[in-house]
Specification:
heterodimer; A: about 210 residues; seven-stranded parallel beta sheet; B: about 170 residues; alpha/beta; six-stranded parallel beta sheet; 9 helices
């Protein structure tokens, strides 16, 4: 099977996440894992960040759903790679069934298992349509971006639409060397996050 | 030979009894994937105002979902069968051993009461829990509900994970 080299239609992942870093508000939670857990700390140092590493592959969306259900006045944004989502595709159905609306899933779709050296996923080889899957599951807001300028122009408006939201960002592999960055100890992250989640009770934002 | 009241306790724990037990424990969310015995509790688990029933599609979702709820200050419980425990091993390992979160679960122990069973799901259950150093107790009789309460309260007090194995017959 021929794997399409469509790298020209993918945005730099660093630029894609910078859009989120610029947009995120003080009360929002951002959960990352796998490659994004290494890149995100270079862009953001916030008490509401949880760089889920060590993790269980495919566990970031369920963990973020748990936070969203526990903290209904907070908007929870979770970054998942396409390989991770493939490990746990049914979790999209679980998200809908839970009735949580304060959750946004940002799929970083690079078509690769990046941390293991860049092997193509089966989804890339078959042309799997993650956006179509999310639509069929019933996500009320589903979007896909290949161009960072379009993503930047529409991101804030999308986060104001009904949740849960599924946004596929077609991204190129990491250009930086951040995969070798040391992770912040998980115990420290957990302590910081639980303190953050238990603080304040502002009105609902981006529910 | 067990008498009728001692065999298949999860089948004779009626939904209403489980409901009262979970309410008494102060459970906020029940994360559930049914087997043929715990599936009989569906109506009571789904239709109450004390906790939310969360249906997951595979057991590997259950542990990180419980982790997120715990981080947000909630008191979830996971209910699955032993076969699902095996299936979800990596997620369980991560949440219990890496994140060290005090997740609590009721796990249906398939074929536990079938004395002649050679079911590998029965044979490997306790060795696996022991290998992971998970605090567990086994409930084999109808009148053992208090054991669940005791196990839950101990794990909450000590902030460590715990599992109740609920003896079942054939899966």
């Amino acid at each position: 099977m021929q794997v399409n080299d469509d790298s020209d239609s993918r945005m730099p992942v660093e630029a894609a996440l910078q859009v989120l870093a610029d947009l995120r508000s003080e009360r929002e939670v951002v959960v990352t894992n796998q490659g994004s857990a290494r890149l995100w700390p270079r862009l953001s140092q916030h008490a509401g960040d949880f760089n889920y590493n060590p993790s269980t592959m495919g566990g970031a969306i369920p963990l973020a759903l748990g936070i969203a259900l526990a903290c209904p006045t907070r908007h929870v944004i979770v970054l998942s790679g396409d390989g991770s989502l493939l490990m746990n595709l049914g979790c999209l159905v679980s998200v809908l069934d839970s009735r949580a609306t304060n959750l946004s899933i940002l799929l970083l779709d690079n078509g690769l298992y990046e941390v293991t050296g860049g092997q193509a996923t089966a989804a890339r080889r078959t042309g799997t349509d993650f956006v179509g899957i999310a639509r069929s599951v019933g996500f009320p807001t589903v979007e896909q971006f290949c161009d960072v300028r379009n993503w930047q122009a529409q991101a804030a408006e999308i986060f104001g639409r009904p949740g849960p939201r599924f946004v596929s960002l077609r991204v190129a592999p990491l250009a930086t060397d951040c995969l070798t960055d040391a992770s912040q100890p998980i115990a420290e992250q957990l302590q910081r996050l639980t303190a953050f989640l238990s603080s304040g009770s502002d009105p609902v934002f981006r529910s | 030979m067990h008498d009728a009241s001692a065999i298949f306790p999860s089948e004779i724990f009626h939904g209403a009894e489980i409901l009262q037990l979970l309410i008494g424990l102060g459970i906020s969310h029940v994360i559930w994937i049914p087997d043929s015995t715990t599936g009989q509790w569906e109506a009571e688990l789904a239709d109450n105002d004390s906790f939310q029933l969360l249906r997951v599609c595979r057991e590997g979702e259950a542990w990180p979902l419980a982790a997120g709820l715990l981080l947000g200050g909630q008191t979830p419980i996971v209910i699955m069968q032993s076969t699902g425990l095996f299936e979800s091993g990596d997620a369980l390992r991560n949440v219990l051993l890496d994140l060290r979160l005090p997740v609590f679960a009721i796990v249906g122990a398939r074929n536990w009461l079938t004395e002649a069973s050679t079911d590998s799901a029965k044979a490997f259950l306790v060795p696996v829990l022991q290998a992971w150093n998970i605090d567990f107790c086994i409930v084999e009789t109808r009148d053992a509900q208090q054991e669940i309460v005791t196990c839950y309260e101990r794990t909450r007090r000590e902030q460590r994970p715990g599992i109740v194995l609920l003896a079942e017959g054939r899966g």
